[in-house]
Design brief:
Elements lengths: L3 E13 H4 L7 E13 L2 E5 L5 H6 L5 H7 L10 H7 L7 E5 L5 H4 L9 E3 L2 H9 L2 H6 L11 H4 E2 L19 E2 L6 E5 L8 E6 L4 E6 L5 H6 L7 H4 L3 H17 L4 E4 L3 H12 L1
Parallel strand pairs: 3-4, 4-5, 5-6, 10-11
Antiparallel strand pairs: 1-2, 2-3, 7-8, 8-9, 9-10
Bound molecules: zinc ion.
Length: 278
């Protein structure tokens, strides 16, 4: 069984280049919100859902305004994941699973648009959102209003999935097989946010590891160039974050055939698209 991977951008934010990569300067750069669309025999798996117009509204009240001010959201009605899928003839109900790398607004903005999907997310990340309030919530970049009301019923904790062969992702470990055929493998990438996940997609031509925000710039993976020091404050666990970067770096060296793709690196996304098309 083979799967096909399409890479969509559901809106974007902007901030200075040096935030994502130390020394990259203060010029504003575009940070697209990546959505991975995996077509398989039984339907469609999404990896993250990007921004949707509701995010603008969600981040316009109370303390969430601070987040919206720091990372302005740009997303038109046609840019949401559900609208882009519809334009490709894919109905929201065709989506069987949404793997959420983590619960930040730029990853769960479109989640409410897929009411039939199982939501693959670390249970402890969802538990945390219920616990933290105010500044703590802001620091963690969480906007609970973006989560579906019936999330608890549709939640699929990756720890409950069958184990996958770690050989493809070593030195990462803890791989889990989402569809039972090894084509979509969920891998813990801890550090950036509680329970952060990555997804290995094995297409007919290439293996692609969607790493979410475990790396913001592919040079973090290829050259271990880390984000600005301020990002430490916004990371759930900075030492684990740097260990995950080290592990991704070793994986990329061991497997030069593997496309390691951060969720917000515009150039890397464009290149991956071109490679997947060949
Ligand atoms: Zn993000």
């Amino acid at each position: 069984m083979t799967v096909e991977l399409t890479l969509l951008e559901a809106g974007h934010t902007t901030h200075s280049a040096g935030v994502a990569r130390r020394g990259a300067g203060r010029a504003p750069v575009r940070f697209p919100a990546l959505v991975g669309v995996v077509r398989h025999a039984g339907g469609v798996v999404l990896v993250d859902t990007g921004y949707a117009p509701r995010v603008v509204e969600a981040l316009s009240h109370g303390i969430d305004r601070v987040y919206g001010g720091l990372l302005p959201v740009h997303v038109g009605p046609d840019e949401s994941a559900v609208a882009q899928l519809a334009a490709r003839g894919i109905d929201a109900d065709d989506v069987t699973h949404v793997v959420v790398t983590h619960l930040h607004a730029d990853h769960v903005g479109g989640l409410r648009d897929f009411p039939a999907a199982r939501v693959v997310v670390a249970r402890r990340a969802v538990d945390e959102i219920a616990r933290v309030r105010g500044v703590g919530r802001l620091r963690r970049g969480l906007a609970p209003v973006l989560l579906p009301d019936d999330l608890a019923d549709r939640l699929l904790d990756p720890m409950t999935l069958p184990r996958a062969d770690d050989a493809d992702v070593e030195p990462l470990g803890g791989a889990r097989d989402l569809l039972g055929d090894g084509t979509v493998v969920v891998v813990p990438l801890p550090g950036h946010a509680t329970g952060h996940l990555g997804v290995l997609v094995r297409t007919a031509t290439r293996d692609v590891l969607l790493v979410g925000d475990a790396a913001w710039d592919r040079r973090a993976v290829t050259h271990r160039e880390l984000p600005a020091p301020v990002v430490r404050l916004l990371s759930a666990d900075w030492p684990r974050y740097t260990r995950t970067i080290d592990a991704l770096h070793r994986l990329a060296e061991r497997r030069p055939d593997l496309i390691v793709l951060p969720a917000h690196d515009e150039a890397a996304i464009a290149e991956a698209r071109a490679e997947l098309a060949t």
